[in-house]
Predict the structure.
Amino acid sequence: MPMNLEKIRSERGLTQGDLADMSGLKQSTISKIERGYDGVTLRSLYKIADALEVDLSELFADSRGPAEAALIQAFRSLPAERQQGWLEMAQAIARPNPEASA
């Protein structure tokens, strides 16, 4: 489930520990949720939303731009073996080129 929790927390200048204190949850719980832990309870999400003073729905808003959303959709439509090729290509493109800075 895509979450905007880390983005919202960071924009407010809060650490995971700060948010944990504000919500009454453990810092490790905040960390797990930000990493995509799928065992999070609705009660925990409500505590976080209340602490951040946002609607619960804002934690789930999709902040992807149109190009990113299109890439993800195209990637998901590929068979697994082609996905691996795309992933390797994207990682190669994203790597900094040390020769370019020389």
About this structure: Residues 25 and 71 are 35 Å apart (CA to CA). The longest helix spans residues 80-94.
